[in-house]
Amino acid sequence: MHAxxxxxxxxxVSKTTTTFNLAYLLASRGNKVLVIDADPQCNLTELLIxxxxxxxxxxxxxxxxxxxxxxxTILDALRPRIDGDVPEVDVxxxxxxxxxxxxxLLRGDVNLSDxxxxxxxxxxxxxxxxxxxxxxxxxxxxxxxxxxxxHEIDFVLIDVGPSSGALTRACFLVCDAFFVPSMPDRFNxxxxxxxxxxxxxxxxxxxQIVPSFIEQGLPVRPxxxxxxxxxxxxxxxxxxxxxxxxxxxxxxxxxxxEEKLKPVLDNVIPGVSLSGGMTAANxxxxxxxxxxGLAPLMQETGKPVFGIEKADTKIINDGVPWQGNVxxxxxxxxxxxxxxxxxxxxxxxxxxx
Length: 353
Description:
This protein is α/β, with parallel strands linked by helices. The chain has 2 domains: 2-292, P-loop containing nucleotide triphosphate hydrolases (Rossmann fold), CATH 3.40.50.300; 293-352. The protein has 13 helices and 10 strands. It has helices at residues 15-28, 43-48, 50-63, 74-82, 116-124, 131-137, 139-150, 166-174, 186-207, 210-215, 244-267, 294-301, 324-349, and strands at 2-6, 33-38, 97-100, 103-106, 155-160, 177-182, 226-233, 237-238, 241-242, 284-288. The strands form 2 sheets. Strands 3-4-2-5-1-6-7-10 form an 8-stranded mixed β-sheet, with helices on both faces. Strands 8-9 form a two-stranded antiparallel sheet. The longest helix is centred in the last third of the chain and has 26 residues, at 324-349. The two termini are 13 Å apart. The mean pLDDT is 96.
């Protein structure tokens, strides 16, 4: 299993949208992808099964009765372990949703934040002799790993919320690698500093317990996620280039990485570098502009932005598909989006080397 997340504690950076499109692109290359929605907002679930949810909403409106959605939620799966009813999550009871032949979904749950306190307590008690808390501490990693093995998954994409809480920490430490999604503005450039402090603490605290957990036979994950790069996204274009106001902040991000994040990744674990060989010169691995009019189509159809078809455009054009230059320009943008997303997919696939 290769588990990856797009993480930034700064919200509004389009991490869920990019995770959605990356899942589809990896799947289109023949990879089997498991998408885990670990964000209580459940936006990734909404994107991946939008048509199913719409049908359930329509049925509820007609009958007045809530309609169940297919598959287990992540909270359904974790609850028995969190409550101490079982030593580990039983993956045989977990029902995934088949989105496509190569994409499986463990859907989100709006009540997932209910387990924050339990995960926080497990972290606090990780040095104690309390078996229940230690099993809870390793629960997510063990669960995701065994679930991926059962379904012969190539890559696991974990969507997390823009928080620094116990749930996000636990999911991040499960991962083998991570991207940092960002927007080109002052707040995102500054956020690299606080992100660096956060990751330094998470990784170093986890490393303190790995040897003892292994000795006790607990299925602890290494907690050494490798940095795959910064994704600069959701900016406006002019004449084929980012507008100058956005390019200003794009150009400042590498220096901030070199100053704040790279030293942490290179030194948080003695003798191990997690920076992936990245420098200021190559740390931005993709530049994904604003989707403009294609975003509503992606959300409505549940298709990746590069998979939208001409007939789909009538949804937002009074029943008439886009024609001529309008459609030609949209096709050009979709191809460019796919190229940028391809840089991310390449990074993910290289984890197998």
